Amino acid sequence: MADPNLPPQGPAVQVPLLNSNNYRENQGTDLDRVLDRLEKFLTFLGFKQSSTLRFLLSWAGFVVVGVLLSVLMLEFSQCSGCEKDQITNFELDIVTSQTCLAAISLLCLSHNLRKYGIRKFLFVDRSCGHVASLNDLYIKQIKFH
Description:
about 140 residues; single chain
């Protein structure tokens, strides 16, 4: 006999815990969200130079942080009991070479991001995560021919 306090039960409904279509959609949105965050981070660092203003701000920030700050730190650092001219010249050579490499990196990375966008630059496409199904389709097409 049924308990009168419990609500009546209908037929049992089976719902899958993981729907493959929802999983693929969520995976795509997760990827989009991560790429958006990465793009914002690169923009904050000055690598996204999509306008003239961003270009000027990026290179101005690079000159201030990469060149002026480094040179000022070397000039104002005190070295007691050492040959200051030799050490300073050597350190300036190191800072100069690091600055040149950083400038080349900034130039190349910002150019490629502007040219291709974040998805193409990182080789991320809409088929990400669906390689197994694509492989099956390719195998079927190859076997057909």
